[in-house]
Design brief:
alpha+beta; VC0467-like; five-stranded mixed sheet; 4 helices; globular
Length: 119
Amino acid sequence: MQALPIFQGGPVELERGWILHRDPSLGESQTILPGLYLSGGMDTLKKLLLGGRESFRFFLGYAGWGGGQLEEELKEGAWITVSAEARYVLDTPPEQAWERVLRDLGVDPANLMLGRGLH
């Protein structure tokens, strides 16, 4: 059996696991967008592992914002946004995800200067 990569979902509740996957039939799945579902719990993880499903990501922790905080950061231009697509999360190798999204936006990552205002 291949090792399961574990991704950091954010700094909150690092002991809690979350699974992004494609299977809407798994118990307690919440639809994130068409073709992408969120689940938690060891039973779901076991089903994915034992069922040979490769198209999922396992995260520990999550990122959270206070009321209105994210909206304010978006208004300030602190984030680059892109249309949500399952392919960015599940079909792209993790080490290539940021570059793929940026290139799909028409941005050359080599020309992106990180600094104040970008997270």
